[in-house]
Amino acid sequence: MPEPKITMQEVEQVARLARLALSDAEKESMRRELDGILSYIDKLRALDTEGVPPTSHAVPMTNVMREDEPVPSLPQADMLANAPERSGEFFRVPKIIEE
Amino acid sequence: MLTDLTIHELAGLFRRKAATPTQAAREYLDRIAALDPKVKAYLTVTGEAALARAAEADARFQAGAPLSPLDGVPLGLKDVLCTRGVRTTCGSKILESFVPPYDATVTRRLKAAGIVILGKTNMDEFAMGSSTENSGFFTTRNPWDLSRVPGGSSGGSAAAVAADLAAATLGTDTGGSIRQPAAFCGNVGLKPTYGRVSRYGLVAFASSLDQIGPFTKDVEDAALMLQAIAGHDPKDSTSATVPVPDYAAGLGRGVEGLRVGIPAEYFIDGLDPEVESAVRAAIEILRGLGAKTESVSLPHTEYGLAAYYLIGPAEASSNLARYDGVKYGLRVPGSRDLIDMYSRTRGAGFGAEVKRRVMLGTYALSAGYHDAYYGKAQRVRTLVQRDFQHAFERVDVIVAPTTPSVAFKVGEKADPLSMYLNDVFTIPVNLAGLPGVSVPAGFTRAGLPIGVQVIGKAFDEETVLRTAKAYETATEWRKRKPELAA
Q1: Which of A89, B21, B417, B473 could form a disulfide with B54 if both were Cys (CB 3.0 to 4.6 A apart)?
Q2: CATH code assigned to A1-48
Q3: Which residues of B touch A94 (CB under 8 A)?
Q4: Any CB–CB contact under 8 A between A90 and chain B?
Q5: What pLDDT score does A97 carry?
Protein backbone atom coordinates (compact mmCIF):
# COMPACT_ATOMS: atom_id res chain seq x y z
CA MET A 1 0.00 0.00 0.00
CA PRO A 2 1.46 3.38 -0.98
CA GLU A 3 1.33 6.12 1.64
CA PRO A 4 -2.03 7.97 1.43
CA LYS A 5 -1.75 11.42 -0.17
CA ILE A 6 -4.24 12.88 2.27
CA THR A 7 -5.18 11.81 5.80
CA MET A 8 -8.53 12.00 7.55
CA GLN A 9 -7.13 14.73 9.77
CA GLU A 10 -6.21 16.81 6.72
CA VAL A 11 -9.69 16.27 5.25
CA GLU A 12 -11.21 17.64 8.46
CA GLN A 13 -8.83 20.59 8.51
CA VAL A 14 -9.51 21.50 4.85
CA ALA A 15 -13.29 21.16 5.41
CA ARG A 16 -12.96 23.62 8.30
CA LEU A 17 -11.03 26.08 6.08
CA ALA A 18 -13.62 25.69 3.32
CA ARG A 19 -16.55 26.11 5.74
CA LEU A 20 -18.07 22.80 4.66
CA ALA A 21 -19.98 20.64 7.14
CA LEU A 22 -19.37 17.02 6.06
CA SER A 23 -20.94 13.88 7.50
CA ASP A 24 -18.64 11.04 8.60
CA ALA A 25 -19.57 9.06 5.48
CA GLU A 26 -18.80 12.08 3.29
CA LYS A 27 -15.43 12.56 4.97
CA GLU A 28 -14.43 8.98 4.28
CA SER A 29 -15.45 9.02 0.60
CA MET A 30 -13.89 12.48 0.24
CA ARG A 31 -10.59 11.19 1.61
CA ARG A 32 -10.60 8.24 -0.76
CA GLU A 33 -11.54 10.31 -3.83
CA LEU A 34 -9.12 13.14 -3.13
CA ASP A 35 -6.42 10.53 -2.63
CA GLY A 36 -7.10 9.14 -6.11
CA ILE A 37 -7.19 12.57 -7.73
CA LEU A 38 -4.01 13.74 -5.97
CA SER A 39 -2.23 10.53 -7.01
CA TYR A 40 -3.16 11.27 -10.63
CA ILE A 41 -2.04 14.90 -10.25
CA ASP A 42 1.29 13.64 -8.99
CA LYS A 43 2.31 13.06 -12.60
CA LEU A 44 3.11 16.79 -12.69
CA ARG A 45 6.13 16.10 -10.49
CA ALA A 46 7.78 14.33 -13.41
CA LEU A 47 7.89 17.61 -15.32
CA ASP A 48 10.88 19.91 -14.89
CA THR A 49 9.43 23.41 -14.46
CA GLU A 50 12.64 25.00 -13.19
CA GLY A 51 12.82 28.53 -14.60
CA VAL A 52 9.31 28.36 -16.16
CA PRO A 53 7.26 31.40 -15.13
CA PRO A 54 3.73 30.74 -13.78
CA THR A 55 0.70 31.72 -15.87
CA SER A 56 -2.30 32.94 -13.92
CA HIS A 57 -4.22 34.21 -16.93
CA ALA A 58 -4.34 33.22 -20.60
CA VAL A 59 -4.40 36.80 -21.80
CA PRO A 60 -1.74 38.96 -20.15
CA MET A 61 -3.23 42.16 -18.72
CA THR A 62 -2.55 44.25 -15.64
CA ASN A 63 -4.39 47.04 -13.88
CA VAL A 64 -7.24 47.66 -16.31
CA MET A 65 -8.38 51.21 -15.50
CA ARG A 66 -11.52 53.09 -16.42
CA GLU A 67 -12.65 56.68 -16.11
CA ASP A 68 -13.81 57.47 -12.59
CA GLU A 69 -17.36 58.37 -13.56
CA PRO A 70 -20.18 57.88 -11.08
CA VAL A 71 -23.01 55.69 -12.38
CA PRO A 72 -26.14 54.54 -10.56
CA SER A 73 -25.87 51.37 -8.49
CA LEU A 74 -28.53 48.69 -8.42
CA PRO A 75 -31.43 49.70 -6.15
CA GLN A 76 -31.02 48.61 -2.52
CA ALA A 77 -34.42 46.89 -2.48
CA ASP A 78 -33.39 44.72 -5.46
CA MET A 79 -30.16 43.72 -3.76
CA LEU A 80 -31.97 42.77 -0.58
CA ALA A 81 -34.73 40.87 -2.34
CA ASN A 82 -32.86 37.53 -2.38
CA ALA A 83 -31.70 37.68 1.25
CA PRO A 84 -32.66 34.62 3.32
CA GLU A 85 -33.23 36.92 6.29
CA ARG A 86 -33.13 40.67 6.67
CA SER A 87 -33.85 43.40 9.11
CA GLY A 88 -34.90 46.68 7.57
CA GLU A 89 -32.19 47.65 5.14
CA PHE A 90 -29.70 45.10 6.48
CA PHE A 91 -28.81 41.44 5.87
CA ARG A 92 -29.55 39.64 9.13
CA VAL A 93 -27.08 36.99 10.35
CA PRO A 94 -26.69 34.89 13.52
CA LYS A 95 -24.87 36.54 16.41
CA ILE A 96 -21.15 37.07 15.71
CA ILE A 97 -19.84 38.63 18.94
CA GLU A 98 -20.11 36.83 22.29
CA GLU A 99 -21.73 38.87 25.03
CA MET B 1 -41.79 22.67 -39.11
CA LEU B 2 -40.13 25.89 -38.03
CA THR B 3 -38.32 24.03 -35.25
CA ASP B 4 -36.22 22.17 -37.86
CA LEU B 5 -34.68 25.36 -39.14
CA THR B 6 -31.42 27.13 -38.49
CA ILE B 7 -31.36 30.73 -37.30
CA HIS B 8 -30.52 32.04 -40.76
CA GLU B 9 -33.29 29.99 -42.39
CA LEU B 10 -35.82 31.14 -39.78
CA ALA B 11 -34.74 34.77 -40.09
CA GLY B 12 -35.21 34.54 -43.86
CA LEU B 13 -38.81 33.38 -43.38
CA PHE B 14 -39.47 36.21 -40.92
CA ARG B 15 -38.11 38.79 -43.37
CA ARG B 16 -40.19 37.42 -46.25
CA LYS B 17 -43.22 37.35 -43.92
CA ALA B 18 -43.59 33.62 -44.59
CA ALA B 19 -43.58 33.01 -40.82
CA THR B 20 -43.74 35.13 -37.66
CA PRO B 21 -41.70 35.03 -34.47
CA THR B 22 -44.92 34.17 -32.60
CA GLN B 23 -45.45 31.10 -34.79
CA ALA B 24 -41.87 30.03 -34.17
CA ALA B 25 -42.12 30.60 -30.41
CA ARG B 26 -45.40 28.66 -30.22
CA GLU B 27 -43.97 25.73 -32.19
CA TYR B 28 -40.97 25.58 -29.92
CA LEU B 29 -43.06 25.85 -26.74
CA ASP B 30 -45.38 23.10 -27.98
CA ARG B 31 -42.42 20.89 -28.81
CA ILE B 32 -40.87 21.56 -25.39
CA ALA B 33 -44.18 20.61 -23.73
CA ALA B 34 -44.30 17.38 -25.75
CA LEU B 35 -40.67 16.25 -25.67
CA ASP B 36 -38.86 17.89 -22.79
CA PRO B 37 -40.38 15.52 -20.21
CA LYS B 38 -38.14 12.93 -21.95
CA VAL B 39 -35.07 15.01 -22.80
CA LYS B 40 -35.14 17.20 -19.66
CA ALA B 41 -33.09 19.97 -21.25
CA TYR B 42 -34.80 22.85 -19.45
CA LEU B 43 -34.77 23.79 -15.78
CA THR B 44 -37.15 26.69 -16.34
CA VAL B 45 -39.42 27.43 -19.32
CA THR B 46 -40.56 31.05 -19.67
CA GLY B 47 -43.46 30.57 -22.05
CA GLU B 48 -45.48 33.69 -21.29
CA ALA B 49 -42.51 36.04 -21.47
CA ALA B 50 -41.38 34.33 -24.68
CA LEU B 51 -44.75 34.93 -26.36
CA ALA B 52 -44.81 38.55 -25.23
CA ARG B 53 -41.36 39.18 -26.70
CA ALA B 54 -42.27 37.28 -29.88
CA ALA B 55 -45.29 39.56 -30.33
CA GLU B 56 -43.00 42.59 -30.13
CA ALA B 57 -40.75 41.02 -32.77
CA ASP B 58 -43.81 40.35 -34.97
CA ALA B 59 -44.56 44.07 -34.93
CA ARG B 60 -40.99 44.94 -35.92
CA PHE B 61 -41.08 42.58 -38.92
CA GLN B 62 -44.54 43.91 -39.82
CA ALA B 63 -43.00 47.40 -39.88
CA GLY B 64 -40.05 46.07 -41.89
CA ALA B 65 -37.60 47.06 -39.15
CA PRO B 66 -36.03 44.01 -37.47
CA LEU B 67 -33.36 44.76 -34.89
CA SER B 68 -30.76 42.25 -36.11
CA PRO B 69 -30.29 38.90 -37.91
CA LEU B 70 -31.40 37.27 -34.64
CA ASP B 71 -34.61 39.26 -34.18
CA GLY B 72 -37.48 37.02 -33.08
CA VAL B 73 -35.32 33.87 -32.89
CA PRO B 74 -36.18 31.54 -29.96
CA LEU B 75 -33.16 30.67 -27.83
CA GLY B 76 -32.31 28.91 -24.57
CA LEU B 77 -29.70 30.10 -22.08
CA LYS B 78 -27.62 27.94 -19.78
CA ASP B 79 -28.83 28.47 -16.22
CA VAL B 80 -25.49 29.95 -15.16
CA LEU B 81 -26.19 33.17 -17.12
CA CYS B 82 -28.08 35.80 -15.16
CA THR B 83 -31.53 36.74 -16.43
CA ARG B 84 -33.23 39.65 -14.72
CA GLY B 85 -36.40 38.48 -12.97
CA VAL B 86 -35.97 34.85 -14.10
CA ARG B 87 -34.65 32.26 -11.63
CA THR B 88 -31.00 31.38 -12.23
CA THR B 89 -29.96 28.27 -10.31
CA CYS B 90 -26.56 27.24 -11.74
CA GLY B 91 -27.97 23.73 -11.36
CA SER B 92 -27.53 24.05 -7.60
CA LYS B 93 -29.85 23.61 -4.66
CA ILE B 94 -28.02 26.45 -2.98
CA LEU B 95 -29.41 28.85 -5.63
CA GLU B 96 -32.75 27.08 -6.16
CA SER B 97 -34.76 30.26 -5.61
CA PHE B 98 -32.23 32.90 -6.70
CA VAL B 99 -33.75 35.56 -8.99
CA PRO B 100 -31.04 37.87 -10.40
CA PRO B 101 -31.66 41.61 -10.16
CA TYR B 102 -29.74 42.19 -13.41
CA ASP B 103 -29.02 40.66 -16.81
CA ALA B 104 -25.67 39.18 -17.81
CA THR B 105 -24.07 41.20 -20.60
CA VAL B 106 -24.74 38.36 -23.07
CA THR B 107 -28.40 38.30 -21.99
CA ARG B 108 -28.62 42.08 -22.41
CA ARG B 109 -26.97 41.96 -25.86
CA LEU B 110 -29.20 39.14 -27.10
CA LYS B 111 -32.30 40.95 -25.84
CA ALA B 112 -31.15 44.10 -27.64
CA ALA B 113 -30.84 41.97 -30.80
CA GLY B 114 -34.53 41.01 -30.39
CA ILE B 115 -34.20 37.36 -29.42
CA VAL B 116 -36.93 35.42 -27.62
CA ILE B 117 -35.81 33.52 -24.50
CA LEU B 118 -37.61 30.16 -24.24
CA GLY B 119 -36.04 29.25 -20.91
CA LYS B 120 -32.99 28.25 -18.91
CA THR B 121 -31.17 25.00 -19.60
CA ASN B 122 -29.93 22.30 -17.24
CA MET B 123 -26.27 21.86 -16.33
CA ASP B 124 -23.87 20.20 -13.95
CA GLU B 125 -23.92 22.11 -10.68
CA PHE B 126 -21.85 25.31 -11.06
CA ALA B 127 -20.66 23.91 -14.42
CA MET B 128 -18.60 21.20 -12.70
CA GLY B 129 -19.06 18.00 -14.66
CA SER B 130 -19.20 16.36 -18.07
CA SER B 131 -22.66 14.74 -18.10
CA THR B 132 -25.30 16.88 -16.25
CA GLU B 133 -25.43 14.05 -13.70
CA ASN B 134 -24.10 16.59 -11.19
CA SER B 135 -27.15 18.83 -11.64
CA GLY B 136 -28.86 19.40 -8.30
CA PHE B 137 -32.21 18.77 -9.99
CA PHE B 138 -32.15 16.04 -12.67
CA THR B 139 -30.03 14.53 -15.47
CA THR B 140 -30.60 15.67 -19.05
CA ARG B 141 -30.82 12.86 -21.61
CA ASN B 142 -29.02 12.59 -24.93
CA PRO B 143 -31.66 12.98 -27.69
CA TRP B 144 -29.83 10.36 -29.83
CA ASP B 145 -30.15 7.73 -27.08
CA LEU B 146 -32.12 8.57 -23.97
CA SER B 147 -30.12 6.09 -21.86
CA ARG B 148 -26.99 8.18 -22.46
CA VAL B 149 -25.73 11.51 -21.15
CA PRO B 150 -25.74 14.65 -23.32
CA GLY B 151 -22.28 15.60 -22.05
CA GLY B 152 -21.66 18.54 -19.80
CA SER B 153 -21.53 20.81 -18.16
CA SER B 154 -23.74 22.60 -20.74
CA GLY B 155 -25.67 19.39 -21.44
CA GLY B 156 -29.12 21.01 -21.35
CA SER B 157 -28.05 23.58 -23.95
CA ALA B 158 -26.60 20.89 -26.25
CA ALA B 159 -29.60 18.56 -25.90
CA ALA B 160 -32.05 21.43 -26.51
CA VAL B 161 -30.45 22.23 -29.88
CA ALA B 162 -30.12 18.56 -30.87
CA ALA B 163 -33.79 17.86 -30.08
CA ASP B 164 -34.97 21.07 -31.79
CA LEU B 165 -36.16 22.51 -28.48
CA ALA B 166 -34.42 25.83 -29.30
CA ALA B 167 -33.04 27.38 -32.50
CA ALA B 168 -29.75 27.86 -30.63
CA THR B 169 -28.54 28.15 -27.06
CA LEU B 170 -25.71 29.66 -25.05
CA GLY B 171 -23.43 27.58 -22.88
CA THR B 172 -20.16 28.10 -21.05
CA ASP B 173 -16.84 26.32 -21.45
CA THR B 174 -14.26 26.15 -18.65
CA GLY B 175 -12.61 22.84 -19.60
CA GLY B 176 -14.71 21.68 -22.54
CA SER B 177 -18.26 22.30 -21.32
CA ILE B 178 -19.43 23.57 -24.74
CA ARG B 179 -17.35 21.47 -27.13
CA GLN B 180 -17.77 18.11 -25.35
CA PRO B 181 -21.61 18.19 -25.16
CA ALA B 182 -21.75 19.54 -28.74
CA ALA B 183 -19.75 16.48 -29.83
CA PHE B 184 -21.99 14.14 -27.79
CA CYS B 185 -25.22 15.68 -29.14
CA GLY B 186 -24.15 16.27 -32.75
CA ASN B 187 -24.28 20.04 -33.00
CA VAL B 188 -21.90 22.95 -33.45
CA GLY B 189 -20.40 24.24 -30.18
CA LEU B 190 -18.08 27.23 -30.18
CA LYS B 191 -15.82 28.29 -27.33
CA PRO B 192 -14.49 31.74 -28.21
CA THR B 193 -11.08 33.11 -27.21
CA TYR B 194 -10.82 34.01 -23.53
CA GLY B 195 -11.82 37.69 -23.37
CA ARG B 196 -13.80 37.69 -26.63
CA VAL B 197 -17.15 37.61 -24.80
CA SER B 198 -17.92 39.46 -21.57
CA ARG B 199 -18.32 37.26 -18.51
CA TYR B 200 -20.34 39.88 -16.59
CA GLY B 201 -23.35 38.07 -15.15
CA LEU B 202 -21.90 34.62 -15.84
CA VAL B 203 -21.84 33.06 -12.39
CA ALA B 204 -18.13 32.35 -11.91
CA PHE B 205 -16.60 28.87 -11.68
CA ALA B 206 -12.93 29.40 -12.67
CA SER B 207 -12.50 33.00 -13.71
CA SER B 208 -9.29 32.58 -15.72
CA LEU B 209 -10.85 29.80 -17.83
CA ASP B 210 -14.62 30.46 -18.13
CA GLN B 211 -15.91 31.62 -21.50
CA ILE B 212 -19.43 31.90 -22.98
CA GLY B 213 -20.31 30.57 -26.43
CA PRO B 214 -23.14 29.23 -28.63
CA PHE B 215 -24.58 25.83 -29.54
CA THR B 216 -26.11 25.96 -33.01
CA LYS B 217 -27.48 23.77 -35.79
CA ASP B 218 -24.79 24.89 -38.23
CA VAL B 219 -21.61 26.94 -38.50
CA GLU B 220 -23.23 30.01 -40.05
CA ASP B 221 -25.51 30.26 -36.98
CA ALA B 222 -22.45 30.06 -34.72
CA ALA B 223 -21.00 33.07 -36.55
CA LEU B 224 -24.28 34.99 -36.12
CA MET B 225 -24.48 34.18 -32.42
CA LEU B 226 -20.85 35.11 -31.78
CA GLN B 227 -21.41 38.40 -33.62
CA ALA B 228 -24.23 39.26 -31.24
CA ILE B 229 -22.32 38.55 -28.03
CA ALA B 230 -18.67 39.41 -28.82
CA GLY B 231 -16.87 42.61 -27.87
CA HIS B 232 -15.49 44.65 -25.04
CA ASP B 233 -17.62 45.35 -21.98
CA PRO B 234 -16.56 47.88 -19.35
CA LYS B 235 -18.23 45.63 -16.75
CA ASP B 236 -15.71 42.81 -17.41
CA SER B 237 -12.15 44.12 -17.20
CA THR B 238 -10.87 40.86 -18.73
CA SER B 239 -12.98 41.34 -21.86
CA ALA B 240 -10.70 42.27 -24.75
CA THR B 241 -10.64 45.56 -26.66
CA VAL B 242 -9.62 43.67 -29.84
CA PRO B 243 -11.96 44.78 -32.69
CA VAL B 244 -14.80 42.39 -33.58
CA PRO B 245 -14.75 41.37 -37.27
CA ASP B 246 -17.78 40.46 -39.40
CA TYR B 247 -17.81 36.72 -38.67
CA ALA B 248 -20.32 35.74 -41.37
CA ALA B 249 -18.49 37.66 -44.12
CA GLY B 250 -15.46 35.39 -44.46
CA LEU B 251 -17.22 32.07 -43.82
CA GLY B 252 -17.38 30.90 -47.42
CA ARG B 253 -13.76 31.58 -48.35
CA GLY B 254 -12.76 27.92 -48.20
CA VAL B 255 -9.55 26.32 -46.97
CA GLU B 256 -7.40 26.35 -50.13
CA GLY B 257 -3.81 26.69 -48.96
CA LEU B 258 -4.79 26.78 -45.27
CA ARG B 259 -2.17 25.12 -43.05
CA VAL B 260 -3.84 22.54 -40.79
CA GLY B 261 -1.91 20.98 -37.90
CA ILE B 262 -2.65 17.46 -36.68
CA PRO B 263 -1.39 16.94 -33.11
CA ALA B 264 0.12 13.49 -32.59
CA GLU B 265 -0.70 13.62 -28.86
CA TYR B 266 -4.45 13.64 -29.59
CA PHE B 267 -4.36 10.24 -31.33
CA ILE B 268 -3.51 8.07 -28.37
CA ASP B 269 -4.39 4.75 -26.75
CA GLY B 270 -7.86 5.08 -25.34
CA LEU B 271 -9.16 7.04 -28.31
CA ASP B 272 -12.29 5.22 -29.55
CA PRO B 273 -11.39 3.73 -32.98
CA GLU B 274 -14.67 4.94 -34.47
CA VAL B 275 -13.91 8.49 -33.29
CA GLU B 276 -10.39 8.26 -34.67
CA SER B 277 -11.51 7.08 -38.11
CA ALA B 278 -14.20 9.81 -38.31
CA VAL B 279 -11.65 12.51 -37.40
CA ARG B 280 -9.07 11.13 -39.84
CA ALA B 281 -11.77 11.13 -42.55
CA ALA B 282 -12.54 14.78 -41.70
CA ILE B 283 -8.87 15.65 -42.12
CA GLU B 284 -8.90 13.91 -45.52
CA ILE B 285 -11.90 16.00 -46.56
CA LEU B 286 -10.09 19.21 -45.60
CA ARG B 287 -7.08 18.01 -47.58
CA GLY B 288 -9.33 17.35 -50.54
CA LEU B 289 -10.59 20.92 -50.28
CA GLY B 290 -7.04 22.23 -50.66
CA ALA B 291 -5.83 22.48 -47.05
CA LYS B 292 -2.20 21.56 -46.38
CA THR B 293 -2.01 19.24 -43.41
CA GLU B 294 1.08 18.63 -41.33
CA SER B 295 1.87 16.93 -38.08
CA VAL B 296 2.42 19.16 -35.04
CA SER B 297 3.43 18.31 -31.50
CA LEU B 298 1.72 19.48 -28.32
CA PRO B 299 4.00 17.55 -25.94
CA HIS B 300 2.43 18.73 -22.67
CA THR B 301 -1.10 17.65 -23.56
CA GLU B 302 -1.14 14.80 -21.03
CA TYR B 303 -0.20 17.19 -18.21
CA GLY B 304 -2.94 19.70 -19.06
CA LEU B 305 -5.64 17.68 -17.33
CA ALA B 306 -3.69 17.40 -14.06
CA ALA B 307 -2.88 21.14 -14.09
CA TYR B 308 -6.51 21.96 -14.79
CA TYR B 309 -7.72 19.91 -11.83
CA LEU B 310 -5.63 22.14 -9.58
CA ILE B 311 -6.21 25.53 -11.24
CA GLY B 312 -9.96 25.08 -11.81
CA PRO B 313 -10.77 23.89 -8.26
CA ALA B 314 -8.43 26.51 -6.74
CA GLU B 315 -10.31 29.31 -8.49
CA ALA B 316 -13.65 27.66 -7.74
CA SER B 317 -12.91 27.34 -4.02
CA SER B 318 -12.41 31.10 -3.93
CA ASN B 319 -15.35 32.00 -6.20
CA LEU B 320 -17.81 29.74 -4.35
CA ALA B 321 -16.93 31.29 -0.98
CA ARG B 322 -19.77 33.74 -1.70
CA TYR B 323 -22.42 31.07 -1.08
CA ASP B 324 -22.62 31.57 2.65
CA GLY B 325 -26.34 31.94 3.30
CA VAL B 326 -26.14 35.71 3.89
CA LYS B 327 -27.01 37.71 0.78
CA TYR B 328 -28.87 35.20 -1.40
CA GLY B 329 -29.64 31.53 -1.78
CA LEU B 330 -30.17 28.83 0.79
CA ARG B 331 -29.69 29.30 4.52
CA VAL B 332 -29.92 26.39 6.92
CA PRO B 333 -31.73 27.68 10.03
CA GLY B 334 -31.03 26.97 13.69
CA SER B 335 -27.26 27.52 13.69
CA ARG B 336 -25.46 28.39 16.92
CA ASP B 337 -23.19 31.01 15.34
CA LEU B 338 -22.14 32.52 12.02
CA ILE B 339 -19.45 29.98 11.09
CA ASP B 340 -21.77 27.11 11.97
CA MET B 341 -24.40 28.72 9.69
CA TYR B 342 -21.89 29.02 6.80
CA SER B 343 -20.71 25.41 7.16
CA ARG B 344 -24.13 23.83 7.50
CA THR B 345 -25.59 25.92 4.67
CA ARG B 346 -22.75 24.96 2.32
CA GLY B 347 -22.82 21.35 3.48
CA ALA B 348 -26.55 21.10 2.72
CA GLY B 349 -26.61 23.27 -0.43
CA PHE B 350 -23.67 21.92 -2.44
CA GLY B 351 -23.66 18.55 -4.20
CA ALA B 352 -20.87 15.97 -4.01
CA GLU B 353 -18.81 17.15 -6.99
CA VAL B 354 -18.89 20.80 -5.93
CA LYS B 355 -17.79 19.81 -2.42
CA ARG B 356 -15.00 17.69 -3.90
CA ARG B 357 -13.67 20.57 -5.99
CA VAL B 358 -13.96 23.12 -3.20
CA MET B 359 -12.01 20.72 -0.99
CA LEU B 360 -9.40 20.03 -3.67
CA GLY B 361 -8.98 23.74 -4.40
CA THR B 362 -8.77 24.69 -0.73
CA TYR B 363 -6.19 21.95 -0.21
CA ALA B 364 -4.11 23.05 -3.22
CA LEU B 365 -4.09 26.66 -1.99
CA SER B 366 -3.48 25.92 1.68
CA ALA B 367 -0.26 26.65 3.53
CA GLY B 368 2.43 24.10 2.81
CA TYR B 369 0.86 22.87 -0.46
CA HIS B 370 0.47 26.10 -2.43
CA ASP B 371 3.81 25.93 -4.27
CA ALA B 372 3.83 22.17 -4.77
CA TYR B 373 0.34 22.10 -6.27
CA TYR B 374 -1.09 25.46 -7.37
CA GLY B 375 2.28 27.01 -8.24
CA LYS B 376 3.37 23.91 -10.13
CA ALA B 377 0.09 23.83 -12.09
CA GLN B 378 0.53 27.45 -13.15
CA ARG B 379 4.00 26.67 -14.49
CA VAL B 380 2.64 23.68 -16.39
CA ARG B 381 -0.02 26.01 -17.78
CA THR B 382 2.80 28.09 -19.29
CA LEU B 383 4.22 24.95 -20.94
CA VAL B 384 0.82 24.03 -22.40
CA GLN B 385 0.47 27.57 -23.74
CA ARG B 386 3.96 27.44 -25.30
CA ASP B 387 3.09 24.16 -27.04
CA PHE B 388 0.30 25.96 -28.89
CA GLN B 389 2.47 29.01 -29.62
CA HIS B 390 5.10 26.81 -31.25
CA ALA B 391 2.51 24.91 -33.27
CA PHE B 392 0.84 28.09 -34.47
CA GLU B 393 4.14 29.37 -35.83
CA ARG B 394 3.73 26.69 -38.49
CA VAL B 395 -0.02 26.19 -38.94
CA ASP B 396 -3.20 28.30 -39.08
CA VAL B 397 -5.52 25.89 -37.26
CA ILE B 398 -5.25 22.59 -35.42
CA VAL B 399 -7.74 19.77 -36.09
CA ALA B 400 -8.27 16.96 -33.56
CA PRO B 401 -10.95 14.86 -31.89
CA THR B 402 -13.17 16.79 -29.46
CA THR B 403 -13.49 13.85 -27.07
CA PRO B 404 -11.82 10.44 -26.72
CA SER B 405 -15.21 8.65 -26.86
CA VAL B 406 -18.84 9.20 -27.74
CA ALA B 407 -21.69 9.76 -25.25
CA PHE B 408 -21.56 7.29 -22.36
CA LYS B 409 -24.45 5.77 -20.41
CA VAL B 410 -26.06 7.57 -17.49
CA GLY B 411 -24.35 6.22 -14.36
CA GLU B 412 -21.46 4.65 -16.29
CA LYS B 413 -18.69 6.86 -14.90
CA ALA B 414 -19.16 6.68 -11.16
CA ASP B 415 -15.50 7.37 -10.34
CA PRO B 416 -14.74 11.12 -10.49
CA LEU B 417 -11.35 10.65 -12.14
CA SER B 418 -12.76 8.57 -15.03
CA MET B 419 -15.24 11.40 -15.62
CA TYR B 420 -12.42 13.99 -15.62
CA LEU B 421 -10.45 12.04 -18.24
CA ASN B 422 -13.23 12.76 -20.73
CA ASP B 423 -11.97 16.35 -21.01
CA VAL B 424 -8.39 15.53 -21.95
CA PHE B 425 -8.65 17.04 -25.49
CA THR B 426 -10.62 20.15 -24.58
CA ILE B 427 -8.87 21.36 -21.42
CA PRO B 428 -5.53 22.45 -22.97
CA VAL B 429 -7.44 24.94 -25.15
CA ASN B 430 -8.91 26.59 -22.03
CA LEU B 431 -5.54 26.69 -20.30
CA ALA B 432 -4.15 28.53 -23.33
CA GLY B 433 -7.26 30.76 -23.71
CA LEU B 434 -7.73 29.83 -27.40
CA PRO B 435 -10.88 29.54 -29.53
CA GLY B 436 -12.17 26.07 -30.43
CA VAL B 437 -15.24 24.68 -32.12
CA SER B 438 -16.69 21.18 -32.22
CA VAL B 439 -18.44 20.29 -35.48
CA PRO B 440 -20.43 17.09 -36.29
CA ALA B 441 -18.11 14.56 -37.96
CA GLY B 442 -20.39 11.58 -38.39
CA PHE B 443 -21.88 8.79 -36.32
CA THR B 444 -20.78 5.51 -34.80
CA ARG B 445 -22.30 2.26 -36.04
CA ALA B 446 -24.64 2.52 -33.04
CA GLY B 447 -25.82 5.91 -34.30
CA LEU B 448 -24.10 8.18 -31.77
CA PRO B 449 -22.66 11.54 -32.91
CA ILE B 450 -18.91 12.16 -33.19
CA GLY B 451 -17.31 15.61 -33.03
CA VAL B 452 -14.20 17.04 -34.66
CA GLN B 453 -12.50 20.00 -33.02
CA VAL B 454 -10.93 22.98 -34.80
CA ILE B 455 -8.61 25.04 -32.60
CA GLY B 456 -7.32 28.47 -33.63
CA LYS B 457 -5.00 31.28 -32.64
CA ALA B 458 -6.21 33.76 -30.03
CA PHE B 459 -8.91 36.05 -31.47
CA ASP B 460 -8.89 34.19 -34.79
CA GLU B 461 -12.42 32.78 -34.60
CA GLU B 462 -12.75 33.75 -38.28
CA THR B 463 -10.32 31.07 -39.44
CA VAL B 464 -11.74 28.51 -36.99
CA LEU B 465 -15.26 29.12 -38.32
CA ARG B 466 -14.12 29.21 -41.96
CA THR B 467 -12.46 25.80 -41.56
CA ALA B 468 -15.53 24.39 -39.82
CA LYS B 469 -17.79 25.81 -42.53
CA ALA B 470 -15.73 24.32 -45.37
CA TYR B 471 -15.88 20.89 -43.72
CA GLU B 472 -19.59 21.20 -42.94
CA THR B 473 -20.39 22.16 -46.54
CA ALA B 474 -18.57 19.07 -47.81
CA THR B 475 -20.58 16.74 -45.52
CA GLU B 476 -24.24 16.05 -44.78
CA TRP B 477 -24.15 15.11 -41.10
CA ARG B 478 -26.25 18.11 -40.15
CA LYS B 479 -29.24 16.73 -42.03
CA ARG B 480 -29.59 13.73 -39.72
CA LYS B 481 -31.91 14.30 -36.74
CA PRO B 482 -32.57 12.16 -33.68
CA GLU B 483 -35.87 10.27 -33.67
CA LEU B 484 -37.94 11.48 -30.75
CA ALA B 485 -41.56 10.50 -30.40
CA ALA B 486 -43.74 12.27 -27.88
Answers
A1: B21
A2: 1.10.20.60
A3: 335-338, 340-341
A4: no
A5: 73
Give the span between the Cα atoms of B174 and B429, in whole angstroms: 9
Is the torsion defined by CA of B343, B344, B348, B352 positive or negative? positive
How far is it, in rounded angstroms, from Cα B398 to Cα B259? 9
Note the ipTM here. 0.95
Q: Is the pLDDT of residue A1 over 70?
A: no
Cite the beta strand spans of B82-211 per DSSP E.
Answer: 116-121, 168-172, 188-191
**Domain-embedded: residue B447:** no
Task: Tell me the mean pLDDT per 10 residues along chain B, length 486.
Answer: 97 98 98 98 98 98 97 98 98 98 98 98 98 98 98 98 98 98 98 98 97 98 98 95 96 97 94 97 98 97 96 98 97 92 98 98 92 95 98 98 97 89 95 98 98 98 98 96 86
Distance from CA of B198 to the nearest CA of A (A): 14
Q: How far apart (Å, rounded) are the C-alpha atoms in residues B16 and B484?
A: 30
How high is the pLDDT of residue B461? 98
Helix (H, G, I), strand (E, B) or coil at A67: coil
Same domain for B81 and B214, yes or no, is yes
**Is B337 in CB contact (< 8 Å) with chain A?**
yes
Which residues of B belong to the active site? 78, 153, 177
Backbone angles phi, psi at B304, to 5 degrees: -60, -45
A97 touches chain B (CB under 8 A): no
Pairwise CB contact (< 8 Å): B379 & A49: yes
User: In this structure, is residue B162 part of a structural domain?
Assistant: yes
Q: Are B216 and B339 in a shared domain?
A: no
* Count of CB pairs separated by less than 8 Å, A with B: 165
- Cα–Cα distance for residue pair A58/B210, rounded to 1 Å: 11
- Degrees, nearest 5: CA angle A56-B129-B127: 65
